[in-house]
Amino acid sequence: MNFESIIEYQKRDMLLRKIQKEENNDKNHLKMMELAKSINDEKALLGKGSVETNQYLEEISRLNEEVAKISVRIEEIKGIFSSAGSGEDEEAAKNEKIKLFAELNSLKTKLINADRKLSDRMNKLSSLANSGINSINTINRKGKEYEATKAEYEKVLSQNNPRKLTIKEEMEKLKVEPELLALYEKNKKIVKLPVFVTPTGNKEGYSCICGMKLSPADLTELKEKRMCQCKNEACNRLIVLPKAND
Ligand SMILES: [Zn+2]
User: What is the DSSP letter of 228?
Assistant: First the structure.
């Protein structure tokens, strides 16, 4: 296997990663993420406000129905009241009037309470509407700011693109064996870059770049296959001898 090519490939891949990292940390990119988050938060707030608005609207319609029912009953009582007492039994008529009075009083209290609740819910609705308008304004303003920041960030990206393209072309030209490339991609996910390293020291005392000394078994493997894996569990890098005469 051509380890030299994968090491060259890896160098360029790491360079691409570095550029990618710089792009991610670009002040415009960071600002974009911040704006996107705060736009989402504002949208969530707006959604919550709309749920609350619906709840208040339902409550208001229920309260209105209650008020209407109470008003009807009050009118009924007034009717009964004027006709009460025309019967022969004066005592019964008096009692009936007392009962009607009591009901009327209780209905009046209910009406006052319902009215109070109604005006409270109306106030809440109006303040929700105001904060809804504020949220929409904030979303629009931050949306514009996001677009402007994105345009700035895209300038950075287009400045980097030729360089990235050149690196990618170089990587292609290296024509790394698919087997080796697969090994690299697989290990890249579990091993800290660089995945492929050349040993430090000499044949008598090879070490991995992490400092772990190679065991005699590792050395034999390295000699035969020109590749072995570092046994340091925190490292696990692939140690290779790029040239046969190493
Ligand atoms: Zn190691």
Answer: E
